[in-house]
Structures
1.
Amino acid sequence: MGFITVIIFRLLTTDSSIWDMGLGDLALFLCVLLGGMGYAQGGILGKRMRGWRVICWSLVISLPLVVPLTLINFDFTHLAQIADDSPKSIILFTFLCLFNNLIGFFFFYEGLGMGGVARVSQIDLFRPFLTFFFSVAFLGEKMSVISVFFLLLIIVIVYSSKRSKII
């Protein structure tokens, strides 16, 4: 239901049809698919080893693929711009890299291992809502009525999935 809801939201908020999907849409779909499989596997591994080991080993294993793709696709002018801005930008960039994208996963995979993927992953579904909230509050993004409607619809879907019995 969530996937269908996102597709409907995309169709209603863009000028393109379902058949006008581009390479970026396909790449996003593959990322969600592969990310979901990695997410589930990480939760299973979280039962056998500590959370910090799960994320660190996943980074080590993915390194041979990530480094070449990063070198090919990364726009290094952004990195130079951060360095030229101020020490504050470098501190914030470092904070995001270390805490949000590494150390946060230590606790996340530990929690997946303790509580189970199905239960704990439901909490992670609230991340898009926080992203919307902070983009409106701090970046001046506009929140449309249709966005609020679909956010509420996703909340209903998540709540319903938690309440339904597995058959």
2.
Amino acid sequence: MYGRVRTALLASLLLSQLSCAGRDQPAPVDRLYQGKSFLDFEAGSLRQESYQVVAGDTLYSIAFRANVDVRTLAQWNQLRDPYLIVPGQTLRLATPQANQQGIDPVAKKEYRDTKPQQNNDKKITPTPRSTPSPTRIEVAHTGEIFASNNDIRWQWPASARVITEFSTAEAGSKGLDFSGGRGDPVYAAATGKVVYVGNALKGFGNLIILKHNDDYITAYAHNQQLLVKEQQWVNGGDEIAKMGDSDAEQVKLHFQVRFRGKSVNPRHYLPRGKQ
């Protein structure tokens, strides 16, 4: 189950093409597969309060599309790890609604149960007492705070030279390729959360994906060694991998920046005067 979750997340976050720098054309499976594409997994694409599960969905992919932490989504729907869901199941995608007075139903029940009952049999002179404090309703918080677009501090993911530039051509590179030696450090291009670590996607080898906010992610492919784990937070400039040639014809780092699911030229974000 976890392997399917990771694969779904990978497909959701990354690629409209399965081509990497150096490929003459996209992998055949990209043309033959008629199921969900990366567009189906765009962050923020689910904005309704509920969602009916269909074949191929995972709680992780639904959470990504609804911009909700998967653990929070599981809590709202009373699901436990490994978060099994089935087609036809309806999931809540929003915080349980409060009643018209703005009081959570559970808190309302507790208030009703503790509210003094009116005594119609005999009038009793009230005894002065202090006014009770209003009921306080705790709000769950995931603790995830991402930088706004203007506050992201971009830096180069490798010190090696660039050997392949970004291209908008259909068969062109969707990122930058850096040459280097086996074991050279690969750095996080900005502060973010590790949302994928693995090698489930053919053509990218050992891959890491970082989420920087709801708009931006970065990908680091062909690594020899992966130094981070999923759900881990890293700072910009932290070493996250060792350069390698996994699923590549030579030792290199293939680096992508994606804005709302679309590949963009990393040079538009990385500092100038280098490389």
3.
Amino acid sequence: MTLPVWLLPFVVAIVYLTMFLLERRFPLRKARRPLWPRVLVNVAITGIAVATAAITVRPAVEHLLALSPQQNFGALALLELPLAAEFAIAFVLFDWSFYWWHRLNHRVPLLWRFHNVHHVDPDLDVTTAFRFHAVEIGYSSAFRATQVLLIGPAAWMYFMYELVFQVATLFHHSNVKLPLRIERAVNRVFVTPRMHGVHHSHFHTETDSNYSTVLSWWDRLHRSLRLNVPQEAIRIGVPAYSQPADNRPGKLLRMPFAEQRTYWRQDGATMEARPASRTPGPANRMHE
């Protein structure tokens, strides 16, 4: 099976535009900063990230995918299963391993320096989705290559997961307000905007939760799920990098190489954990 090369960028562009328009009509959280200056910053950082991916991630993955049928490597090569079962296993392994990669980017100080560029955006919407430092994209190519080596998927399986991955990333970063009962139902399987909004919170314990990308199961399985934070109570960003000057392209590109501030302190206050009295209900119960 082969997929047309234009399919991924075409679908991503359509979903991006759709989410952007829906956010204007049905916003989930109130914006803290003017829209268009943020959009210009995010588009600039995203453009550099996409260009970096084109010259690092894509060649590395495509080379390994071309070798896979010949060398017969990876976990799928050890199994003799129907094609549909192989695809399901590949999909689950890709998504589960990406959960751990995301979590690693939060836990390893050197990786967090670069991943922090994604989190210091003072608002969260679809334009934040691909806003990553170019260096993070560059070293992610090694992780992507490792995924392909260990899983050993057919090329179409990888690209089908990548298509779902990109669409899911746009969806859960969006600021689209869904009816609560619908989002609760969807969130039983997939990551949703309210769930990922908590991950971009000013509070450290909330940022260190909800690492899943496509399937929400991994946070439930690994006890890193946090849903009981009201969206109106969430302030997006990283406390120590919350000034307007921190969210400019040049500053963002230099940020990981400069001396790091104490991320979870602002104006002398420590933003480690939200008081329990302000998080109604159990952690696995999504709040409005």
4.
Amino acid sequence: MNFNSLSQFIPAIVFIVIFLFLLSLEHFFPLRNKTYSLVVRLLINASLSVISFMVVFFLVSPAAKNAISWSSENSFGILNLIKLPAVIEGIIAFLLMDLAFYYWHLANHKVPVFWRFHNVHHIDPDLDVSTAFRFHFGEIALSAIFRIIQISIIGITPAAFFIYEICFTANTIFQHSNVKLPIRFERILNKIIVTPRMHAIHHSQFRTETDSNFSTVFSLWDHLHKSIRLNIPHKDIVIGVPGYTKSGDNNLDNVLLLPFKKQRDYWKKPDGSELFSREKYISENPGKLED
């Protein structure tokens, strides 16, 4: 079996194993109580995932492979400027890929047209492993352009790209999971990677919390960019986007058409009221993960 075959086969196995393992843990050790029918949510998120995977297969993956081939053939990109030992080059490639995804995630929150699509991910009323694949096909299609720019500028090799994609997928599933880890263990783990409690704050209905914790694999990018927010007691977190909490907002037809509709005020409830500020209820240290 050649490398190209492995690069398609192994990620699928990793995805299935991690997904099923965390789905089981969520059942026995839930971090949050569910507010919505699990079966309905799984059907909606699975439907969105199938469409998104098709876009990945026919658009994003070919774009990434072509960008890798082009940068290699033309010696283009940061990593092609100087010859480095393979291990050092791989580490730098991994870090640059992860940093680039920090900026891409940030752009999806700050650029209005991108947020229209990314909002579909955030209006999920609960947060679990299925949310990790709940992305609108429009956002996935737009990411193809980002992928071409990202890969071309970095000049990553196929092997380094393969390794990063495995880690990227694995930690995306993990951080969206509804698994309750021992707080002491998660505080240690969170110093290195994004964990469930950290990412749950990013899915909070409070805008100041949603606009934080943009990292994908390594949590250090939020520390460096001062966008870290860990000091929110988990019992106080309500998942979703206030403006999209009506009963029919998470129907499949609505989430598919949502980016193309007139947008509501995202941060006001359907009745027009705003969430009260809870700044006074949290500690002054944004870098300490609360239970």
